Amino acid sequence: MTARNGSFAPLDPGRRILMGPGPSDMHPRVYQAMGAPLTGHLDPYFIGVMDDTKVLLRYVFQTENDLTIPISATGSAGMETCICNLVEPGDEVLVCVGGVFGDRMAQMVERHGGRLIRLEGASGRPFTPDQVREALAGCRPKLVGLVHAETSTGVLQPLEEIIRIVHEHEALVLVDTVASLGGTPVKVDEWGIDVCYAGSQKCLSAPPGLAPVTLNERACTAISGRKTPVDSWYLDLSLINAYWDGDRVYHHTAPVSLIYALREALVLIHEEGLATGHARHALNYEAFKAGIDAMGLGFFVDAPHRAPTINPVLSPDGVDEASVRRRLLEDYGIELGGGLGALKGKAWRVGLMGQSSQKDHVMLCLGALEETLRAEGHEVAESGVAAASAVYADSP
């Protein structure tokens, strides 16, 4: 990569098997879509691509919300889009903080002038309805923020009962589905989620750089009733939606190739079928779980509370987790994530998301991890590959 004699080597990172917290592997059709000829961002052909993308996002979010679009920025910008449009200075906002991304949501609330109320969660466990009910008894928030699948811990947060409780207190519900949308059920309309955002690079298996969002009529009414302007021009949904809908008023130069890619990734999800895709993710998680259990390794999160899409596996005592990750990348091309926040240096975050949730990925990862642990001087209990194979053999 270093310039020599005024020139740079061609880009060639080598084969990567992306099994970390994102990005995930992409289907060849998505790469092909990225290479389609560029159009202008107001070209009639591209307007049709935009319309397709909105329809397909509604399918994945399981919603009929009119305002369902991708923000031209990463998943964290999707978070900030929702917060800066809904939170005005002085608004009370309750955020359920169970990991790094709940904490990020809380920081954004304060930066946009909200009166933050933090509900701290137990490490590696979801919030209970009683915890939320008790927190709501002492405040009247405009908005309650929850993370569905916390990427830093691997906790999958049950939502339905908590959403019902929040609505009883006349607050809006904001849900982070960055690590869950497309990989496990996210039922925006059925569950009553008011505002939801995701990222393009995880279970959707598109390139990083887009943040799908969806807002229902209650949320849109709250935005239209603001007393102050949205404090971000770029993320002001009234301006962005005027480009995505209606008169197509110019707002910014859309990332055309990224939207091509997202559309194709969503088409692939539609072709597979949401339920079939969710079942695939669940099966690959069960096989991975069987392999990790057989090897005598531990998960950070108890089984009932795990997201099937992202799981921190605890590094055994005496094993350098960073060294294992480095060997996996250098010897096998497998990328795992390191621990984040409280798990830094203590766990591997293993992603089974989108195109990376495949039988061959699971088997290769387990076999490579077993060999690498032995090379690091740690003996595993039993063959993880054999245990995973038994799960696949028993599946329909």
| Low-pLDDT segments, ≥5 res | none
CATH homologous superfamily heading of the largest domain = Type I PLP-dependent aspartate aminotransferase-like (Major domain)
Broad shape:
globular
At CATH level 2, the architecture of the largest domain is: 3-Layer(aba) Sandwich
Beta fraction: 5-15%
Q: How would you state the average pLDDT, rounded? A: 96
* Widest beta sheet: strand line-up: 2-8-7-6-5-3-4
Cα-atom radius of gyration: 22 Å
Order of helices and strands: EHHEHEHEHEHEHEEHHHHEEHEEEHH
Q: For the report, how would you describe the main beta sheet?
A: 7 strands, mixed
Helical fraction? 40-55%
> How many beta-strand segments?
13
End-to-end distance, in Å?
47 Å
Global structural class: alpha/beta
CATH topological fold name of the largest domain: Aspartate Aminotransferase, domain 2
Quick synopsis:
By secondary structure, this protein is α/β, with parallel strands linked by helices. Helix content is 41%, strand content 13%. The protein contains 14 helices and 13 strands.
Question: How do the strands and helices of this protein lay out in sequence?
Answer:
Layout: E1 17-18, H1 28-34, H2 44-61, E2 67-71, H3 75-86, E3 92-97, H4 100-111, E4 115-120, H5 129-136, E5 143-147, H6 160-168, E6 172-176, H7 188-191, E7 195-197, E8 211-215, H8 217-224, H9 237-244, H10 256-272, H11 274-294, E9 298-299, E10 310-314, H12 321-332, E11 334-335, E12 337-338, E13 347-351, H13 359-375, H14 384-394
Parallel strand pairs: 1-11, 3-4, 3-5, 5-6, 6-7
Antiparallel strand pairs: 2-8, 7-8, 9-10, 10-13, 12-13
Helix pairs in contact: 1-10, 2-10, 5-6, 11-13, 11-14, 12-13, 13-14
